[in-house]
Amino acid sequence: MNRYKSVIAYDGSSFSGYQIQPNGRTVQGELEAALQKLHKGANVKVAASGRTDAGVHAIGQVIHFDSPLEIPEDKWPTALNGLLPNDISLQKTEKVHPDFHARFSAVGKEYRYKIYTSSYRSPFKHMYECHYPYALDLDAIKAAIPSLLGTHDYTSFCSAKTEVEDKVRTIHSIELIQKHDELEFIFKGNGFLYNMVRILMGTLLEVGTGKKSASDMGWILSQKNRIHAGKTAPAEGLYLWKVYYSSSNEEEEVI
Amino acid sequence: MNRYKSVIAYDGSSFSGYQIQPNGRTVQGELEAALQKLHKGANVKVAASGRTDAGVHAIGQVIHFDSPLEIPEDKWPTALNGLLPNDISLQKTEKVHPDFHARFSAVGKEYRYKIYTSSYRSPFKHMYECHYPYALDLDAIKAAIPSLLGTHDYTSFCSAKTEVEDKVRTIHSIELIQKHDELEFIFKGNGFLYNMVRILMGTLLEVGTGKKSASDMGWILSQKNRIHAGKTAPAEGLYLWKVYYSSSNEEEEVI
After folding, report:
1. Is A224 buried (19+), middle (13-18) or exposed (0-12) by CB count in 10 A?
2. How many CB pairs (< 8 A) connect A and B?
3. CB distance A90–B124 less than 8 Å?
4. Please, what are the domains in chain A?
5. Pick from A78, A89, A124: which is nearest to B123 by CB?
6. pLDDT above 70 (res B248)
7. Mutate to test the interface with A, among B122, B134, B254 (most CBs of A within 10 A)
8. B252 falls in which pLDDT band (50, 70, 90)?
9. How far is CA A179 from CA A114, B26, B66, B128, B186, in A?
10. A216: annotated active-site residue
11. Is A194 annotated as a binding residue?
């Protein structure tokens, strides 16, 4: 048996999220269906670095699966992409040690959140970026970022629906890139709680419109209560961009 | 009665083309339905600069319509976008002279054709760019362009399904922009025949793979026969980018 690690990209627009469920089309469901075809009907279980919600996209989601097939690493994308729907694409596969686990071996993650601020909705962006046609004070947003970094209990920035108990995480950086009428926020950390990036993003947008101030961030963190942070930003702007493993096999951006 | 000229953008992926038809969702159908709602049930006929086929996109399609409503120019996008589906967006409206006609007043058009050459399909580009993961000799393509420019009878580059009789058109320029693994071809001319940009593009791609040579272009034109040109390139890469009117009211790129 071989363990394979793959980087996959998907357009989350038409999925009920990553994780398989009884009703609704899921990324995991499509991956396992394609692998089952390739394995002549045998079930192949896929493990991912983490779930993504309905509408959330992935550029560098990482999965692993075990297979008796001896397909060369560079032939896997061709073999599987023909069996996958057009909104999922396998970008890269490598054979890894049987101890490798897409979720438990991950040491960090990068998410990106895309916003466009043009006055009118774009027919090409409405599923891929959050439309936010309101004046934003970017300096206020930048001033709010430092107090959100570091190691904290991020309960205030986590959906109450989570089942995770330990809510301490480390955010290494939040970077803002501005191009014309588009904003891209890059979040890097050792891990993120359920809805954490979208709640951080929604809170930063409220700082940008003056509803909250940069100096509120420390207090919100200290309250350990979701009701003090901003609204959860919409799913369509969010991308799981990259999953980091030990330095020797860091994922490249592949799309 | 006022005549209004509007610039609209649409994602052609889910349309059976621009022009209204008995079956199938069309851009014109959606525009007229939205205008009918705004006019309390009265029919409002929309005229466009030209049709686009199923799957073809528009960044700067231009339409005109007549309306008794005295809505200020800058309020039209807000008024109509709320009644339009997410894959059509009205970007700009101005009141024009009653002699203005979106089609007959046009003096030129710009189309763009987008290609991505990465080895594997992208889940984010498959509806918006043509996937062409084959080696292309861009120098050969550039060498083929000059003989396609100027004023010619473009019968060889026009779908046999056309009903237009005069197939003489002028192509001002064909420009190639390369960014990483993406190619963008910019076609500017006084007008384009049915499928003309896609057939020009398909022919240039065959030059890029060596199936045709740059020196074949003049001969293909001279034959005035569609069978000598290359295959029609897929719809998803094509964008109606801009429509030019007399110099005083040239359209801006608005998206």
Report:
1. middle
2. 57
3. no
4. 2-105 (3.30.70.580), 108-242 (3.30.70.660)
5. A89
6. no
7. B122
8. very low
9. 11, 33, 37, 21, 22
10. no
11. no
Give the SS3 label for residue B224. Answer: coil
Exposure string of B18-34, with b = 16+ CB inside 10 Å and e = fewer, is bbbeeeeebbbbbbbeb
Distances (CA, A) of A178 to A59, A116, A117, A185: 20, 10, 11, 9
Q: What is the pLDDT of residues A155-171, one digit of tens each?
A: 999 998 888 899 999 99
Please indicate whether, in this complex, the C-beta atoms of B119 and A255 are within 8 angstroms of each other: no
**How far apart (Å, rounded) are the C-alpha atoms in residues A205 and A178?**
14
Query: For the residues A31-60, what does the mean pLDDT come to?
Result: 97
Q: What is the pLDDT of residues B16-36, one digit of tens each?
A: 999 999 989 999 999 999 999
Contact B3, B95 (CB under 8 A): yes
Enumerate the β-bridge partners of residue B170: B151
Residue A149, min C-alpha distance to chain B (Å) = 31
pLDDT digits (tens, 9 = 90+) for B89-144: 999 999 999 999 999 999 999 999 999 999 999 999 999 999 999 999 999 999 99
A124/B119 touch (CB, cutoff 8 Å), yes or no: no
